[in-house]
Each structure stands twice: as structure tokens, then as C-alpha cells.
Amino acid sequence: CYDPHLLGAIEGMLHKRPNRRATLPELLSREALVRWGQKRELPLGLPDRSALDDLTPSADSPDVMMWGGGARLPRLRTDLSGISVTAISCGAVHAAAVCERGLLYTWGASPHGQLGHGDRATLSVRRRVLGLYRLTTVSVACGRSHTLALTSMAQLFACGSHEYGQLGIGTAPKPDFSALTTISQVSLDAMRCALQPLPVIRPDGGRGGWASFAAAEAHSAAIDARGEVYAWGCSDDGRLGLRGVGPALGGDETERPAPTREGDSVEAPRRV
């Protein structure tokens, strides 16, 4: 799905014979890189350079404080200084934040790919999630080993562990989300993890959008624009609110790999 000129530039850098590899001037003269450098037509799969520019810190932005991990008192999160954070969430070993420009940042440990950067690297400072670079993120929720993010178009994305179906991406080995981003399609790896954001599947075929959502240890839940409640992931102890729990109550404790609308039942969510 990549531009042939871009592929040619990459092949020039990776030739198996060192004396056949392209020199720096040769690479910089490639049509794909010239177009990108001049911010003209972009090769498919290559993000707009202007979209990758980091934020300009503002003195008027509120500070973000953190504590835990042995720290007794709150301390300043310096890598978020000067950034106007509009949403923030913490998981067991990772965290995420959304800024006023709709950019999503994550940091921490990523043993299941929950940071959404395409790898399992641990980050001590924030990094923008480029898998959503063409979209505006408005909210984020971190589970124990997965992350959910909502865009301004009411689309819900997930990354991290799908061991119990908590990503809500269904059982398809390779969901098609090429219409939403130009990042290469990614599938679940051998550990049932999505290392980059994937769209959460709607049981009604995509009609309507998501309005609110939450991520827990091994399950997730969301409310759509019509006010209907959906839940997916591990259903142990009736946490999904889907009928009863266990054979005696006529329910089940099976995994729900895609959002399922809750119905009137014993374990259905009730107003507090």
C-alpha cells in the first residue's frame, strides 16, 4: 500500500551489498522525500510532517502532577509542562493523556502494547500515538493492560491485550481499518495483543457513534449516542451485566470479543 518511490528509497538504504547502498545525497534527491520535504503530495503511508510537529509549550497551561511508585508527595510531570491536558487516565503500569489539540500521548510500561506505538518498549516520557495522527482524540481510558480512545467523530479505538476480548475488535484476525488511517494494517500477535490502535466493532454494523466509555482490568464498557449500554471482555462475576452468572442462573461467563448490548437481567447495571 506504500508509494513505489518510497519503497525505492527504503530499498536503496537496505541493499545487502554496502557498496550498492544509496548515499545520503542520493536519498535526499528521491522524489518521495522531496515531495514530503516540500509538504506537497504525500506518499501513501507517510504522515504529513506538519502533523508530527510537537506542541509549543504555553505558560498558561495547568501543571500535571503525579505520585505513587514510592513517591509520598505529588511531583510535577515535567514532560507535560506547558501542555493543556484535557483528559488523562492511568492503568496498572501505563498512563495516557489528551491535549486540547486532540493529540493522544502515552507513556509507561507496554508489555501488551497498551501504549499503542507498535512495540512493547517502556517509555519514561510521553510519546504521541501516531496510529491516530489523522484523527482528533477527545478522551482516553486505561485498563490494566489495554487502552481505549475516543475521537471527535465518535469512533472508539483500542490497543493492548485482547486476551479476554477486552479490546472489542471481534475475532477477525486482521480487522480492516484502512479507511480510517494510512498506517499499515496490524493484527493480533501470538500473545493476542494489538500493538497499534484498532477500531472497536459495533454490533449494528457501524451505525451511530460512541458517547462514553470505560476500561477495567479485563473488560470494557461504552454508551452509544442513543444511550444504549454495551460491554465486552471477561464476564467473570457478572461484570458485563449480561443475564445471570453461572449455569444456575442461566447466564454465562464467556468472553465477549466484541461489544454486546446489555439486556434486562439479574446482573444488569442499575442506577446507584
Give structural notes.
It is a single chain. With 272 residues, the protein is mainly beta. 10% of the residues lie in helices and 30% in strands. It contains four helices and 14 strands. It has helices at residues 4-13, 24-28, 31-37, 49-52; strands spanning 65-68, 71-76, 85-90, 94-99, 104-108, 123-128, 137-142, 146-151, 156-161, 193-199, 210-215, 219-224, 229-233, 256-261. The strands form four sheets. The chain has a four-stranded antiparallel sheet, with no helix packed on it. It has a four-stranded antiparallel sheet with strand order 7-8-9-10, with no helix packed on it. The longest helix has 10 residues, at 4-13. It is globular, with a radius of gyration of 21 Å. The protein starts with a helix and ends in an 11-residue tail after the last strand. The model is unreliable at 42-46, 48-53, 172-186, 245-251 and 262-272 (pLDDT under 50).
